[in-house]
Amino acid sequence: MRRFDYDLVTIGAGSGGVRATRLAGGYGARTAIVEQSRVGGTCVIRGCVPKKLLVYAAHFADDFEDALGYGWRFDMPPEVDWGMLIERKNGELDRLEGVYKRILRDNHVELIDGTGRVADAHTVEIDGRSVTAERILVATGSWPAMPDIPGIEHVMSSNEALDLTELPNRLVIVGGGYIAVEFAGIYNAVGVEVTQVIRAANILRGFDEDVRTCLAGEMEKKGVRIRREAVVRSIEQTNEGYTVMLDHGDVIAADRILYATGRAPNTRGLGLEAAGVELNQVGAVAVDVDSRSSVESIFAIGDCTDRVNLTPVAIAEGRAFAETQFNANPIKMDYGNIPSAVFSQPPVGSVGLSEAAARRLGPVDIYVSRFRPMKHTLSGRDEMAVMKLVVERETDRVLGCHMVGADAPEIVQGLAIALKCGATKAQFDATIGIHPTAAEEFVTMRERRPDPEEESQV
User: Which fold has domain 340-449?
Assistant: First the structure.
């Protein structure tokens, strides 16, 4: 008789959980996945995919305007049918959820609808029903975190911001990270008056300083108001909407308020601690290099571990888990040189170390190119692009590539391969550029930016 009902039970049918479970099922394991909401998780249902569709839609505002400089004429000014856009977006999410469900079925994975909770090292409870498994995988992702301030019940998170059926006239966005920046670009482009409130002196903490400065300037050119070094103390509802009270006594009026001040591991209520699973100070599952928790039979991947919170990372962790545990093909995750993108307007692409992070390791050479994209020589748009290389002086190895400008994520994805291979600046220089493109700037930068430390010693 079999000791357990399943070889693997996964809690959470997001990108990472689906990848791990369907691979395990494809390798012959008896598998089940538990999901209390929709299959696809944050990325497909409440994050990457719907957000990118709205980014595409919002960017048409610039495209229509730019077309005038190329001789196109319109009888009437174009306008967005926001309700239709949301309806079309939701239709695409329904299609993708169906694809995910089919993938699970094709790999013999049982989908269990309900709220999963870990009862012990080999038992998962789902709404009163218990199932046993040789291994349990926690892949519950993260959830928007909200501060405890008066009036916080009046705000929306990024979840709700993706589903607004009507556009507000005035939107306050609290937060300076990539989610806040992306929504600021979306709503500003479709005509909403956007004010972004940030605690710091600049947006996108953790990104390269040249990237942060360039993007903030471009956003402000487009009309986004950025309130720097400001903290929201309270929110009040009024007859006209809401008022946002800042720490210095300033007040901002708004029709809607979006909080994008961070996300927390979605581990509350899972019974993990009672089952002996160690959580760290932010509530994330503490795991080793094989994604194993402090309980030998319980594993965790994705945002609930708070390692690198990106969908492709969760997918890669899921694959490494399935290959190691169910295909006798041990794989260790490599977290070095993971590329990332911010789908702001204009977008950001980044891979490797920022200048500040690289300087902490030793002497570096910095190459920066700032230019007006060729497209805007006729469109007349006042938009600048920035490209940057961070190079280790001793070895000539490229440590970081950063870009703000059209197609930045697409361009940096290719450069990530070069960094993974340990490419040097000399090899970048030896590469022939494709002309005329913006991307060729990465292989034509020859002038090193003066080193401030060297100049101070002169």
Answer: Enolase-like; domain 1 (3.30.390)
